[in-house]
Amino acid sequence: MDHLAVLADLQARFLETTRRADPAVRIPWLGRWTVQSLVVHLARIHHWAAGQARRQQESPLGRGPFDLPVLYESCARELREALAELDPAARAWALIDDGVPRAQQTGTVAFWHRRQVHETLVHLWDLRTAVGEDLDVDDRVWLDCLDEVVTVMHPRQVRLGRIAPPRVRVVFAPVGADARLELAGAPADAPMAVVRGSARSLALLVWGRGVPDDDRLAADGVEVEGDRALAEATVRAGLTP
Fold first, then answer.
1. Where is 202: in which H helix or E strand?
2. pLDDT per residue over 17-73, tens digit each?
3. Which has the closest alpha carbon to 152: 125, 198, 183?
4. Alpha-carbon dihedral of residues 46, 47, 52, 55, nearest 10 degrees?
5. CA distance 12 to 5
6. CB atoms < 10 A from the CB of 194, how many?
7. How confident is the model over 141-180, as pLDDT tens digits?
8. Could you give the CA distance from residue 147 to residue 153 in angstroms, rounded to a whole number?
9. Are 97 and 159 contacting, i.e. CB atoms less than 8 angstroms apart?
10. Contact 104, 167 (CB under 8 A)
11. 3-state helix/strand/coil string of 119-188
12. In this structure, are strands 169-174 and 223-226 parallel, antiparallel, or unpaired?
């Protein structure tokens, strides 16, 4: 997958939606956030990630108020230009190295190619959903998003002591994809739960999007085979920051 090309496309769609969205629209699944909060957040993340890729502390953007499209367009461009300029194999500060001894760290610029695709994807879903619009994205991108949670974000949560290792072997089985993605850390003899659904449904599930507050595994298009109660507890514990 050409992550930089996907990133440019998702950013363009985010900017286009920002230009016509009411900044005051609430995003209930993100607490007290509004469209304005979301746009400023993603702009700041792009700005920060550009610094992480360069191994430089980013300069503060200030507290605003901001012209939202101008702010987002500027920070999105900054990120794309940084990632295009740098060698993907060059060392970078990366979340994958949090809690890892320095001698074992492996973070590169390529990490941010992928990470920012998924950051933008999830927040584009937030934005489009908040304004009542659908989002059409290739299933391969959603599958990659799910894979990142299973292989990068969840292990980081456990490594940093934010959550305990799972007590059940949770396996995500995206329909139509030759993939079975299992969360790491459960005992080998632990019970198993297989969670099936489209790549999109499962990616949104692990990011806590589009799911019932009291029963995340009851999300539309998601089916569970095995120990449902332990699987629900694992998902609700926080697979992502």
1. helix 199-206
2. 999 999 999 999 999 999 999 999 999 999 999 999 999 999 999 988 999 999 999
3. 183
4. 150
5. 11
6. 16
7. 999 999 999 999 999 999 999 999 999 999 999 999 999 9
8. 9
9. no
10. no
11. HHHHHHHHHHHHCCCCCCCCHHHHHHHHHHHHHHHHHHHHHCCCCCCCCCEEEEEECCCCCCEECCCCCC
12. unpaired
192-197/223-226 β-pairing: antiparallel
* Locus of tokens 């489209």: 198
Q: How many residues does the chain have?
A: 241
The tokens describing 224, both together, are: 């569970």
Q: Is the pTM of this model over 0.90?
A: yes
Residue 218 amino acid letter: A
Residue whose token pair is 């994205």: 137
